Amino acid sequence: MTFPKGFLWGGAIAANQTEGAYLEDGKGLTTVDLLPTGEKRWDIMFGNLPSFQPLEGEFYPSHEAIDFYHRYKEDIALFAEMGFKALRVSVSWARIFPNGDDHQPNEAGLTFYDNLFDELLKYDIEPVVTIAHFDIPVHLVKNYGSWRNRKLVSLFEAYAATLFKRYKDKVKYWMTFNEINMLLHLPFVGAGLVFNEGDNKKQIQYQAAHHQLVASALAVKACHEISPGAKIGCMLAAGMTYPYSCNPEDVWDAMDKDRESFFFIDVQSRGEYPGYAKRFFKDHNLIVEMEEGDEELLKNHTVDYVGFSYYASRATSTDPEINNMTAGNVFGSIENPYLEKSEWGWTIDPKGFRITANQLYDRYQKPLFVVENGLGAVDQLTSDGKVNDDYRIEYMKKHVEEMSEAIKDGVEIIGYTSWGPIDIVSASSGEMKKRYGYIYVDKDNHGQGTLARSKKKSFDWYKKVIESNGEVL
Question: What is its EC number (predicted)?
Fold first, then answer.
């Protein structure tokens, strides 16, 4: 038997991409609520925010999303029909503390997540809860400068402790920051950073990173004290980088690019800043300000497991003549001639999944949790209302096979929550046509549609995978 008994099969979603109801029941405005579709979206995600309020004439997909806020019972019933053992969700910080610095939490927000977790537990589905998943209260960005400000450390600690106290009897698995390394690639999305002309962006990003790392350690500390039986992890946007050739310069460049991401997890999992990061700061004249006690906090409160997303591998070359770039979950990459690509240019590399899992386990020797993996594709409804997504089944099948091989290699994996088990708003592009789900949602890129749910062909396929604990693919 490859997959262990109790393996947590399921799916993963995020509040800002599913819930909608963006100002309902006292919820405050979040950073994602300021991301429109179209050309302005990317500019804002890089930190060039034109307004702290939604603008007239723009379409903001997070405002309604797929209305999970009102339809979660219907959706969870479908997840239960597939046999889910776990559902990864996130809590919207602004539902609990609308401004982020409120003295008292919003009871309506707390009650919503009580009801959500109760509905999951009714079907014996474990909630796997991300505390911060790309949505920061706008008030904190406007009035504090978001994570560039040390004040957010204590505000996040208070927010996390509120969750642990309220849901300690319902949630066994927590994660602090979703894809924490995204701070370096999409600073507004990852950390709510807005830049002004003349800013030293690297200095601001790494100072914000330090604040998030300290906040993560404090959340781990609080979780272990308030809910000793729970497990709390970190989360990396993973996918190893291949050298384009065996030129030692390419090999070094690939290692350097991987370390850019490993830096965060090295601190969260090993408890200290690695030597290569200290050299990077010195070489780039970066001064990361730390307070007394920070190093002890990081050392004494490391995570219990390492969560990661895997969609694609990357490749890099130091040869200026090789510049055929392709996309891949925001990370730029040289096109790999040995791999196929998705409709969005992301490389399809199942073997890279196994390599990445081994790489992470060798590095950290802590349990891994695959909390995102999937294929974004344009799905076509047939005349009888079906979606024959064999391409998705093929993608998932090959990745689950390689995860199985990783487990045989000795890699300890807690579970697998594939990304977007129901169609949701794309985090990067804001599109609905980039679909990941086993469940189709009737909505288009312009917000039109009935929001009706229907099962795709992959729904029954994944149900059999879970029923057989990964033996039938």
Answer: 3.2.1.86
